[in-house]
Amino acid sequence: MGQNLVELARSGGIVGAGGAGFPTAVKLDATCDTVIVNGAECEPLLRVDQQLMVDKAEEMLETLAAVVEQTGAKEGVVGLKKKYVPAINKLNTLLPKYPKLRLFILENFYPAGDEQTLVYEVTGKSVPEGGIPLNVGALVINVETLLNLYNMAEYDKPVIDSYITVTGAVRNPVTVLVPIGITVREALELAGGPTIDDYAVINGGPMMGKIVSPDSQITKTTKGLIVLPKDARVIESKTRPVSRSIRDAASACMQCSLCSEVCPRHRLGHNLEPHKLMRIAAYGNTLDRQALATTAFLCCDCGLCQYACVMDLQPWKFNQELKRQFGAAGVRNPHHSSDVHAIRFADTHRFDVHRLISRLGLARYDVPAPMIPDRLDYTTVSIPLSQHIGAPSTPVVSVGDTVTRGQLIGDIPEGKLGAKIFASIDGTVTDISGNKITISAA
Ligand code: SF4
Ligand code: SF4
């Protein structure tokens, strides 16, 4: 794989497949000491990466070795959980071919896949407050992102499909490759459809995922769809109004500080103590207490504080509200200390994923979601112009144009951060509106 990976990522529309969709070309245009593959997949119920690390192990390691070379790194490390035995076995059979690559085995805790937590586990270094892994010489990349780079390098195939797990209250939980732009409703049918009438769908994991409409689209960053009854605890938590969260903080927070003890950013040494922020929630005057309140900027929204709290309070939601208020007031994160010292996790402070699943009320849905053959036979897709961090793509096709799968349909606006988008089926452009390009097969 001798190509320039930055150019491959840019021309293939590759973005971080596991998170907010940061353009990979920008991330790879760097030098670092360690490239870390985030194979933790720590959100309960998701099953994509752990299966790709078996089925596409060779492709992943070959691409990782190329990223290590390109960035001048000393080594590449695949961080994955001890319980992913098939992936560990498969990768271990291939690793002798790659002297600069190794595995790092993680315990089964949440949020092991938090980028900064993973960097600390692998390198022993804490990313500075408000910083990125590169600040400590690390570059973190997702499993599927590496595969997308491989597909571009070997087959000139841009990002037009996405691997997703469809699970929860569905007939047959599955993991499957689908074209970008099909609807959530269509994806649910691949798992036999919902088993209940009154359901909600989470795009992503139960902790950090968002509730989405069945009519919304699968994008480059969709990793999982979880169907749950509307009255499930996870759904209630996500839909609970922030005003109620604040009211509950005032009446029920006993300042036990359990939330701070488990908070991954607090444990990395960052100046974030959610129990102190809850004092502001309880006593008001949020913006007046700016020095403390702005520490909310250091929260990564992992949601763990709620599930450590015996009162089921939501420090994370209050932090989001503080960030929203500060954003509206034009206040930016003032916390950038690099003098941070991690508090080593004692076993009691690592939040075991089984325990978390039980707290979330999801034990009955914690089942396999095996990989089934690719399902790419769709006749209509609506491809969002914005599937990434940065400016929306600019359409380069018009209604009535004939397009083929893999053809460029949206480009990066001149001088902006963004990502290209491509047709995921053959067909005719039938509509460009609502920030989407719709293609229908002839
Ligand atoms: S764990 Fe709950 S009760 Fe304890 S300090 Fe945190 S929010 Fe308050
Ligand atoms: S969501 Fe809670 S536990 Fe997670 S980083 Fe924010 S304050 Fe800490």
Record the SSE blueprint.
Elements: H1 5-11, H2 24-28, E1 34-39, H3 48-55, H4 57-71, E2 75-81, H5 85-94, E3 101-106, E4 109-110, H6 115-123, E5 138-142, H7 143-155, E6 161-168, E7 174-179, H8 184-189, E8 199-203, E9 210-212, E10 224-229, H9 233-239, H10 242-252, H11 258-262, H12 264-267, H13 274-283, H14 290-293, H15 304-308, H16 315-328, E11 351-352, H17 353-360, E12 380-384, E13 394-395, E14 402-403, E15 408-411, E16 421-422, E17 427-433, E18 436-440
Parallel strand pairs: 1-2, 1-5, 2-3, 6-10
Antiparallel strand pairs: 4-11, 6-7, 8-9, 8-10, 12-18, 13-15, 14-17, 15-16, 17-18
Helix pairs in contact: 3-5, 4-7, 10-13, 10-16, 13-16
The chain binds iron/sulfur cluster (SF4) (2 copies).
One iron/sulfur cluster binds next to helix 11 and helix 13.
What does this entry look like structurally?
Helices cover 32% and strands 19% of the residues. It is an alpha+beta fold and 442 residues long. It has 4 domains: 5-155, NADH-ubiquinone oxidoreductase 51kDa subunit (Rossmann fold, 3-Layer(aba) Sandwich), CATH 3.40.50.11540; 160-230 and 368-376, Ubiquitin-like (UB roll), CATH 3.10.20.600; 239-360, no CATH class; 379-442, Beta Barrel (OB fold (Dihydrolipoamide Acetyltransferase, E2P)), CATH 2.40.50. α4 crosses α7. The protein is globular. The two termini are 37 Å apart. The structure holds iron/sulfur cluster (2 copies).
